[in-house]
Amino acid sequence: MIEVNRQGEVWIFAEQEDGKLSDVPLELMSKGRELADKLSVPLAAVLLAADGGDMPAALIAQGADKVYVVIDERLGHYQAAGYGHVLCSLIEQHTPQIFLYGATPIGRDLAPTVASAMKCGLTADCTDLQIGDHKPAGSDEVHKNLLLQIRPAFGGNIIATIVNFDRWPQMATVREGVMPLGEPDTARSGEIVECAANLDGVQLPLEIIESHRREKAVNLKASRIIVAGGAGVGSKDNFQLIWDLAHCLGAAVGGSRAAIDLGFVDHDHQIGQTGTTVRPALYIACGISGAVQHAAGMSEAGKILAINTDADAPIMGLAHFGIVGDLNVVIPKMIKIIRSGAGVEQAAQQVADA
Amino acid sequence: MALNCVVCVKQVPDTKRITGEAMTEEGTVNRRALPAIFNPEDLNALETALTLRAEHGGTVTVVTMGLPSACEVLRDALVRGADRAILITDRRAAASDTLATSYILSCAVKKLEADIVLCGRQAIDGDTAQVGPQLAEKLSLPVISYVEELVGISDGKITAKRNVGNGWEVVTCTLPALLTVMETANTPRPPAARRVMKFKKARAKSEVEAMAADLLEGDYENYTAELKATEVEKYCANLADRGLLIEQWDLDDLEADLTWCGRSGSPTKVHRIQSVVLTGGEYREFAATDDGIAELIGELIHDHTVG
């Protein structure tokens, strides 16, 4: 635990594997920048690795003022004990006021380990972060400029805002995909602070026997258009309709949890609270009822088109465009119209009319 | 080598079944309107322990922290095969966040001499996945979180396959250790009918107290407090003889430092709770006909969403 302080920096844990930064710290940089600017303190990334490579430069380009770099062979592969030890000593030495981690399996293993050792607060899976004041119930004291840690709770049915006003740093893990990735600016300059790992004598209990990483089969986060199917699609064979529509739109294919659980489409395609969070320009939801857990992963889409037989399905409340009808009829019609270019004529007509 | 497994479990509201009725107008959840269930991944943790006992011998002890009503999940654990069940209940533990909860659980686990501590990866009410790693840190145990598959135990070392998001890794470490188990790790066994009959009568002391008037014979209403206490003790002793007593510990039994329990031990505070209101922008419906769909596609092309 460190004392509450107003000069402490905003820190972001720069998760990496094999010298490659994960997406989420890069996504976190623009939010971290915003928080640091509001508090008028520097934004720093904390990188633990066997070899820094060009990662510090990438973090600076993404918005970091400073990168704390800890290089040690023993940090090449993540394990809670080693990483936790290094982070706790850095926190004690530099007293950051905010420390953010990606809510990845590694971030969700590391952050609680650090929180427990530092006896500080930690909020999991935030979807937004802001700076604001907090007045505890029954107290006249107002705690100014705290990190407001905003997250879904109870299976996504409520949104809770959590604060931590006495035992710092204020720590949170942030869901992947919820913060838009900023444009890197290679002209930015920043300070690289090399720190010692001091791991001699620290027990690293885990031995990694085998490690297997793979790229996801689909990059949902980078897709401008997503066609997603739910339980209403009916079968894996019928899910071909979703693939067909996606192909003719140049879109990626997504699925609701129900579609994944039913085996219609692979887990990599899952959108929602337990899957990927996406913000495409157009999201086409086919046979998806729109449970809050799903909405949590797609409600930020620019335009939402829902195709559903049930006019009262919750997805219709989210949608900008709706077609109430059987997707087995509607999707083939859509494909035919897109391929024929009839929609183009329609659009041309609209321009002419306007 | 016989293994002593301690499984930490939680009773949770079934958040998958939240309907409008379970939400209050202020946007908070009316927990009482939801069925209380055994946290799903804690069942996978229990199954892991039962499988290990079958292979290596030893014991399975289940621990929960909560209100006396949480005994429901302990009875379920006994029915599924646990040897021993412990309820940690204390008003002073109320409002504990994950840090305080892990501290209290660590005090309990320290008394149990565990070779392996098992937790579900996360509970479905908070979805934080924090208590497992925090508990491991407090106990200075190695943690293997997100376990997708337990590979096995040999020569005092445990090997497991863990999910790391964009892949998996197989890790090994010397026991004792703490594991957090995912739903993919196994299929929890159904309750055994024979054990259902036996353990439905299992009770913790606070439950006995609450139902003393029904359980005890004689003119209970007119008993003195002392006599009531004696009767409760007698009833509990009888349950214990039959292996039906759910042990009950409070923070004093745990010799816990109260500073780190409940509200004072919890750095995170709720600032605000809002209900999720799903609202889209302006909604336009198109007919499911050729004309309707062409109009929609035209619209999307026109504003450059498509094309």
From TrEMBL, chain A:
Q: Identify the residues that the record assigns to the Electron transfer flavoprotein alpha/beta-subunit N-terminal domain, covering every copy.
A: 10-208
Matching Pfam families: ETF, ETF_alpha
Any one of the GO BP annotations: fatty acid beta-oxidation using acyl-CoA dehydrogenase
Annotated InterPro entries: DHS-like_NAD/FAD-binding_dom, ETF_a/b_N, ETF_a/FixB, ETF_alpha_N, ETF_asu_C, ETF_asu_C_CS, Rossmann-like_a/b/a_fold
Q: Which GO terms describe its molecular function?
A: electron transfer activity; flavin adenine dinucleotide binding
Signal peptide per UniProt: none
Keywords from the named record: Electron transport, FAD, Flavoprotein, Transport
Q: Which family does it belong to?
A: Belongs to the ETF alpha-subunit/FixB family.
**What name does this protein carry?**
Electron transfer flavoprotein alpha/beta-subunit N-terminal domain-containing protein
From TrEMBL, chain B:
The record's annotation in SUPFAM superfamilies points to: Adenine nucleotide alpha hydrolases-like
Q: One GO molecular function term?
A: electron transfer activity
Question: Which Pfam families does the entry link to?
Answer: ETF (PF01012)
Write down the species. Answer: marine sediment metagenome
Q: Write the protein's name.
A: Electron transfer flavoprotein alpha/beta-subunit N-terminal domain-containing protein
Q: Which CDD domains match?
A: ETF_beta
Which residues does the UniProt record annotate as the domain Electron transfer flavoprotein alpha/beta-subunit N-terminal?
A: 26-210
- InterPro entries reported for this sequence: ETF_a/b_N, ETF_b, ETF_beta_N, Rossmann-like_a/b/a_fold
